[in-house]
Design goal:
2 domains; 14 helices; globular; Alkaline Phosphatase, subunit A; alpha/beta; binds zinc ion; 34% helix; 5-stranded antiparallel beta sheet; 419 residues
């Protein structure tokens, strides 16, 4: 008698892949329309079900959804997005640090936000400007160190480093154009929140002067390009104090992702971040390179988490037809993983971190489909990987925080409760 027991797992999370029926697709969901063969093949041998990333009806952010599917209750452990962005950008955060996501943006003379992306500024210009902001000295808050790092296009991260700061401060970014950029305010009545808001406002003032005088902006002015003349921070966050996943389950874990926030959440949970050339977190990402990296990584790691962002990008663009194409592309790249990985010892999960209906263009609180392949798993009659087929699978309906223990159980990594 041969007993198969999985010792490894590959998890594929396609961001916002889950959808609703779309009128543009003859009332099919993009997954139904795409008929992704390798996803279907896995689903037909998987425990399938639906998953509520956070809770039924609650539209998740990508950050809280990822915390949940890594097994952490987001209502207990979420400490703001900024920290994940900073970790994902490769900054070693310290426990007292407060981190922000930032845009390099264009404002008019009276402070009205004209362009939140500074005319889709190039990586090169944004990088040079960001370097000039890293380490700038503040006067009113001279005890606070400033770290600034460019990530991609107009985006960057800001870290304020000092004891006695707080993440409970409001955004400087008004999140829209045509209005003045905001002054950060303390959101709780504490000296730490007051100091943080004041420091953030001082950083914005000081950085405006640095940006305005910078050669890159002088050149942009001469060429008629929009100036990157302000930094708009948002999403204050601190390092979450959570038990690392490798310690919790005794596994070696790695993540392959393009976007900083996904790398960041996984890093906070103790994953090694594997950098893959061509993994951009956009529609033009090199899927084959990511899947190849996953095949290699699973030789050295017990758990490999692969995140693909493009499904969410086209959903926010309200393009269901393009979403079908993107799903087909991911499916094709993933077929290499299915054919090359040893399925006698490897679990395989395919899911999504939330639903982003491509005719709505925003995250919604619908559950997501989940297929969990494991040697010996009690699979049923599901033949397709989509939102409707998976609903009749043997896994039923689970919560996001149950996802990781469900996989780890197949790896024999969940300690018995009781005796
Ligand atoms: Zn997401
Ligand atoms: Zn999204």
């Amino acid at each position: 008698m041969q007993v198969y027991m999985a010792s490894k797992a590959i998890v594929l999370v396609c961001d916002g892949m889950s959808d609703r029926r779309c009128s543009a697709l003859g009332w099919l969901t993009p997954l139904q329309a795409a008929k992704p063969k390798s996803f279907d093949w896995i689903a037909s041998r998987s425990e399938c079900g639906l998953m509520d990333p956070i809770s039924p009806g609650v539209p998740p952010g990508s950050d809280t959804a990822h915390l949940a599917i890594l097994g952490y209750d987001p209502y207990k452990h979420y400490t703001g997005r900024g920290a994940f962005e900073a970790l994902g950008a490769g900054i070693e955060l310290e426990p007292n640090d407060v981190a922000f996501r930032c845009n390099l943006a264009t404002i008019s003379e009276d402070g009205t936000v004209v362009d939140r992306r500074a005319g889709r500024i190039s990586n090169e210009d944004a990088e040079t400007l960001s370097e000039s902001l890293n380490g700038i000295r503040l006067v009113r808050n001279s005890d606070v160190s400033v770290l600034f790092k460019h990530t991609v296009e107009h985006r960057g991260v800001l870290v304020l480093r000092c004891e006695g700061l707080s993440r409970f401060v409001s955004d400087v970014d008004p999140h829209k154009i045509g209005v003045r950029f905001l002054h950060s305010r303390p959101l709780v009545d504490s000296p730490a929140a007051k100091k943080t808001a004041d420091t953030l406002n001082e950083f914005v003032e000081v950085s405006r002067k640095v940006l305005l005088q910078h050669g890159v902006n002088k050149r942009r002015a001469k060429n008629g390009q929009p100036l990157a003349n302000v930094v708009l921070p948002r999403g204050a966050g601190t390092l979450p104090m959570i038990e690392k996943l490798p310690a919790k389950f005794g596994v070696r874990a790695a993540v392959i992702a393009g976007g900083a926030v996904y790398k960041g959440v996984c890093k906070a949970a103790g994953f090694d971040v594997l950098e893959v050339k061509g993994a951009t977190g956009t529609v033009d990402t090199d899927l084959d390179a990511k899947m190849r990296a996953a095949i290699n990584a699973v030789k050295a790691y017990d758990l490999v988490f692969v995140h693909v962002k493009s499904t969410d990008v086209v959903s926010h663009d309200k393009n269901p037809v393009k979403k079908v194409e993107v799903i087909s592309r991911i499916n094709k790249a993933f077929s290499t993983v299915v054919s090359e990985v040893d399925l006698a010892e490897t679990c395989m999960a395919i899911t999504s971190d939330h639903t982003t209906p491509s005719e709505v263009g925003e995250h919604t609180g619908d559950p997501v489909p989940l297929a969990l392949y494991a040697p010996g798993a009690r699979y049923g009659n599901v033949e397709r990987f989509d939102e409707i087929s998976c609903a009749s699978g043997t896994l039923g309906r689970i919560r996001g925080i149950d996802f990781m223990p469900t996989i780890m159980n197949y790896l024999g990594r969940v300690p018995m409760y009781g005796e």
